[in-house]
Amino acid sequence: MVTNSDTGAATSTGGFTYVTPISSPTIGLISPVSGSTAGTTSITITGTNFVLGATVTVGGNACTSVVVVSATSITCTTPAGSAGAKDVVVTNSDTGAATSAGGFTYVTPIGVVSITSISPKKGSIKGGTEVTITGAGFSGAATIKVGGVTAVVTKRTGSTKITIRTPKHAKGVVLIVLTNPDTGFATFNGFTYTTEEESKRDR
C-alpha cells in the first residue's frame, strides 16, 4: 500500500511475495573416497548447510540410507556404479545443491582366488610337463609362473581349472603363482623339478 500525505492511498493486492531463500550447501570432505563397483560402501559427507530431507547421488544414482546427522554431516550408502571417479551431489529439500566433482571413485573389487591342488606334482628339469591346476576364481586371462618363470597355458576350463606346460628350471621344489588381471593371485607350494634319472625311477 502507498499512502500520500493527504491520506490518498493505493493498494496492489498480492503485489509482493516473500520467499524462503534457497540454501547453499557445500561439500568439504567425503570419507572414504573410494569403494566397490557393487555399491554398499558407507560414506560420510562433511560440509555445511545440510538440511533434513537432503538426498545424495553418486554418479547420478541415488544413495540409500541417507541420514542428515547435522547441518555439517550426512551419511549414506553408495549405489552400484561403473569403475572410475564420479560426482557426488547433495541436494537439499529446497533444491539447494552442492557438487563434489569426482568426489568418489568406484573400483573393481579384486576377486578371491585359490589353488587347491596340482597334478602331477613332479616334472623334469627340462620342462614340458603338463600340469593341471585346480582351484577357484581363475580368470580367462590369468597368468601362471612356475618357480618365477612364466608357463604356457594349454587349456582353460571355466574358473576352476587351468592346464599349463612347465618351463625349464633347476632341480628342486618351486612355487606356483597364478595371477588374475585384477591383481588377485593364489600360490601353491610346490611343484618339484627332478632330473631325468629321478623321473625314470618314479615311473
TrEMBL record:
Domain IPT/TIG: from-to ranges: 24-107, 112-194
Protein name in UniProt: Unannotated protein
Entry keyword set: Signal
Keyword Signal tagged: yes
CDD domains xrefs: IPT
InterPro entries xrefs: Fibrocystin, Ig-like_fold, Ig_E-set, IPT_dom
Tagged with keyword Signal: yes
